[in-house]
Amino acid sequence: MHKLHYVIYNEPDKYGTGVEKKIINQINEFIDLGYEVEVSVLEYKNKVKKMLSIIMGNDGCNYNSIRTDGEIYYFRYPLANRAMINFMKKVNKLGGKILVEIPTYPYEDESHSNKGLRKLRTFINMFKDQHYRVNLKRYVDRIITYSRDEKIFDIKTIKISNASDLYNISARKNVNHTEINLVAVANMNYWHGYDRLIEGLYIYYKKNVRKEIVQLYLIGGGRSIEFYKKLVDKYNLNKYVFFTGILTGKELDGIYNVSDIGIDALARHRSKVYYNSSLKGKEYMAKGLPIISGVETELDYDDNFNYYMKVPADETPINVNDVIDFYYKIYNCGIDHAIAQIRNYAEKNFDFKICFNPVIQYLKTEMNKCT
User: Fold this and answer.
1) DSSP-assigned letter for residue 167
2) Which residues in the chain belong to E strands, given as ranges?
3) What is the DSSP letter of 173?
4) Fewer CB within 10 Å: N-end or C-end of the chain?
5) 70: DSSP letter
6) Cα–Cα distance between 166 and 142 in angstroms, integer?
7) Looking at the domain assignment, is residue 171 inside a domain?
8) Domain extent at residue 237
9) Would the pTM of this model clear 0.85, i.e. be above it?
10) 7 and 140, same structural domain?
C-alpha cells in the first residue's frame, strides 16, 4: 500500500462548502484506490507559535507537522516560502513524489480588494511567494491546474476540470413561477462582478420596454456584499434583487427550485483570470441550471451545449434583454427537458471521478515504475 500525505493549510471546513466537498472527495478517491492517506494541516493551532512563524517568514505554516514517510505528497498550494522549499527538498532527497494543486491560476490579483493590515500581509506573502516559487521546479513533479497552461513555474501540468458532487446534489424541481429568476451563489468578491448585473437590471427597468419581471437572488456573504446592497439601494431595485445570506440544504434547494439561470463569475478579468474551470458552475449544472459566465470555461469549447451564455469580459452592464432572449431559447422545449439535458451533460462530463482521473492515472504510472 502506497502512503500519501494530503497537505492543506486549514482544516477542510474552513474553506467553504464547495471547496470542503472537493477536498473530501479527493481524499476519499485516494483511499478508495488503495492509498494510505494521512491529512496534514499546516496552520499552527497555537496562536503564539503561529505568530512566531509569520514573523519568521513562514506564513503560519508548520511544516514540521508533516512526516516524511510518504511516497506521494499532494499539496493544496498555500503560497511558497522558505519552510515549504526546505521541506520539499527533504522529501525529494527521500524519493517522494510531489504534486501541487493550484486552485486558481494566475492568482496574484485574487486578493486585490484586501485593505489595511490584510493588504500589507498579502503583499509580503506574495513577495515571498515570487521569490521562493522559482525553486519549485527542482522538487515538484507535476502541478495540478484548472487552467489551460501546459507549464506553470516551468513545471509540467496535469490539466483537470472542477467537478460536480453528483451523488450528493439532486436536480432542481420545476416549481411554477412567473418571473425569470437568476441565482448567484458565492462568497462574494470583487471579481464575481455581480455589480454588472445590478447595473444591467437598473437599465432594463429604467427603459421599461418589456413586460418580463427579472429577479436576482444573491446567496452568500463575502467582502462585496455590502457594496452590492448599496448599489441596489441606489437604483431602488429592492423588489427585484434579494440578499438571502448563506443558505444550505433545503433552504438553498428552495431557491434553486424557483431559479431559471445560474450566474457564474462576471468579472474574472479584474483578477487577470481569463479561463476558469468554475466549481460553482458545475454545481449549477448538477442542479440542471443553464449558466451565464463572464469568463471562458470548458463550455466555450463545446458548440453542442446550448445551455450556456457567455458575456463580454469587460466592465459593461449585462444586457438583460439578451438574458431574456437566452431564457426563451433554452426553455423552448420545456423546463423539465432542459433540466434533464443539463444534468445528463454534467453526469457525462463533470462527474468527480471523470475529472480527477488524469491525476490518478499519472500516479498509477509513476507508482508502477517503483515496483
Assistant:
1) T
2) 3-8, 36-41, 72-76, 97-102, 142-145, 151-152, 155-159, 180-185, 214-219, 241-245, 261-263, 291-293, 308-310
3) P
4) C
5) -
6) 27
7) no
8) 180-349
9) yes
10) yes
DSSP 8-state secondary structure symbol assigned to residue 69: -
Residue written as cell 423546463? 335
Q: Give the residue among 100, 95, 92 at the shortest CA–CA distance from 75.
A: 100
Return the H-helix or E-strand segment holding 255: helix 249-257
Percent of the chain at pLDDT > 90 equals: 76
The C-alpha cell of 352 is what? Answer: 468527480
Q: Which CATH number belongs to the domain containing residue 205 in this structure?
A: 3.40.50.2000
User: Exposure of 348 by Cβ count < 10 A (0-12 exposed, 13-18 middle, 19+ buried)?
Assistant: exposed
Does residue 11 register a pLDDT over 90? Answer: no
Find the helix or strand (DSSP H, E) in which 325 lies.
Answer: helix 320-330
What is the reported pLDDT for 114?
67
Task: Express each pLDDT in 58-85 by its tens digit.
Answer: 566 778 888 899 999 999 998 899 989 9
Residue pair 71/97 in contact by the 8 Å Cβ criterion: yes
Q: What pLDDT shows up at residue 17?
A: 66
**b/e code 55-69 from CB counts within 10 Å (16+ = b):** eeebbbbbbeebeee
Residue-wise pLDDT tens digits, 245-265? 999 999 999 999 999 999 999
Where are the strands (E) in 202-275, listed by range?
Answer: 214-219, 241-245, 261-263
Per-residue cell: 324: 431574456
With cell 438553498, the residue in question is 252
Cβ–Cβ under 8 Å, residues 85 and 135: yes
Cross-strand partners of 99: 74, 142
Identify whether residues 322 and 359 lie together within a single domain.
no
DSSP state of 105: S
